Amino acid sequence: MSRPGAVLVSLLVLALVSGGVVYAWQGVGTDELSWRTAAVTRRDVQRVVSSTGTLQADPAVDVGTQVSGVVAELLVDFNDKVDKGQVLARIDPTLLEADVASAEARLSEARAGRDRLALGLRRMEALHARAAATDAELEVARADAAVAEAQVTSTSVGVERARRNLGYSTVTAPVAGTIIKRNVNLGQTVNAGFSAPILFTLASDLTHMVILASVDESDVAQVHAGQAVTFTVQAWPERTFSGTVRQVRLDSKIDQGVVTYSTVVNVDNADGALFPSMTATVEFIVAEAAGVLCAPNAALRYRPESDLPTVGDAPESGDASGAEGGRGGRGGRQKRVEAAEGVLWTLDGGALRAIPVAIGLRGAECAEVQGDGLAEGVEVVLGVDRAAESDAGNPFERKAGDARRPGGF
Questions:
Q1: pLDDT number for residue 28
Q2: What pLDDT shows up at residue 238?
Q3: What is the pLDDT of residue 299?
Q4: Chain-centre distance for alpha carbon 218
Q5: Strands 279-296 and 41-57, bridge-based pairing
Q6: Sheet harboring 69-74: ordered strands across?
Q7: Strand positions, DSSP E, 256-319
Q8: For tag attachment on the chain, is the N or C end more exposed, with fewer CB atoms within 10 Å?
Q9: Beta strands 310-311 and 351-362, pairing class
Q10: Segments of the chain with pLDDT less than 50
Q11: Structure confidence at residue 176 (pLDDT)
């Protein structure tokens, strides 16, 4: 490339850079920014501890059997309402009846042996009275009679046990209620060799239920008996239910290093909308403020950038609110305000104005606030969308119909 051509290229590059610098210096006015705002509202604010739990019938009674065998009769099904003492199922009693007959036969044999030895004892006592039997023979006869009497008692207990087991073959309801679980089918063999198998689960009163919620150890100190609770279930996503804490159990559970405590929550289920084993998302109401001014948490977190114009008093950098000091713009003043608990920002003629506020109860969505000039309906800034500024800041990009800017092409 010739020397004159190189000089021409250098001048062209210099012109491009100069145009971009001039354009960047001009900046963008606040009318080109897209502000995100929300209104201060008057509402109830709650601080809650969140948890999950499972709905359970209260009380729920497991009905099992103490004998093994084949289920010969199954007289109830899921959701059936039963009375106390009602027969639910019968286990085949054939073997149990045989056990009773065998025990009774042993008892008859033991009684016969007792009677025989008792008769021998009386004869031995008569012989001993006439000096025809020794003292040793009399003592042996008395001992044999005592053993026979003990055998009768032992076999009597065996008969009673066999009869009881036969009675257990008929499974009855211990309380009145509703069958919520049936774990056995007709013809199924149940084995009670190691533990009593659970055949049915009865809910005595489904109009009252409980939630067993797992509360994290970091939150359990804020939960106590009598505390109000709200919860939701997936079956009714638009509905919020209420309850009351009955008990915080001291028995802890550790799962992957996380310690939780079971908390029992009383729940009214008069309309039957809640079913056992539903998963509940629980919120324990730790603190509550009614009818207070509430500002969005995002507005309290917002801090304007230093290049945005402000009017009035600007919060001092490093104060309790953590706000950065703004520069005065469009007639804005540089006067500093005293540190406040928090700062909300409103729009005043296209610029930002700070409202120092005292922060009260913080909720999940908003926080209780108090401040001069703060009222219901005041729009506060949540943030700013600089997409328009970014698009305008490119000197080489121009939308159709836009006028050519200084320094642009």
A1: 45
A2: 93
A3: 92
A4: 15
A5: antiparallel
A6: 170-172, 87-91, 69-74, 189-190
A7: 258-268, 279-296, 310-311, 314-315
A8: N
A9: parallel
A10: 1-2, 4, 7-9, 11-28, 317-340, 388, 392, 395-409
A11: 94
Q: What is the pTM of this model?
A: 0.64
Domains of the chain: 30-43+294-391 (no CATH), 49-58+207-289 (2.40.30.170), 67-92+169-204 (2.40.50.100), 93-168 (1.10.287)
Strand 177-182: give its sheet, edge to edge: 60-64, 198-203, 177-182, 81-82
User: What is the structure's pLDDT at 351?
Assistant: 86
Supply 88's token pair: 């639910």
**In whole angstroms, what is the distance from residue 61 CA to residue 79 CA?**
14
Which residue from 352, 304, 395 is spatially nearest to 17, judged by alpha carbons?
A: 395
- What is the Cα gyration radius of the chain? 44
Q: For residue range 162-174, what is the model confidence (pLDDT) as tens digits? A: 999 999 999 999 9
Q: Which residues of 377-386 are buried (b: 16+ CB within 10 A; e: fewer)?
A: ebebbbebee
Query: Are 260 and 245 spatial neighbours (Cβ–Cβ below 8 Å)?
Result: no
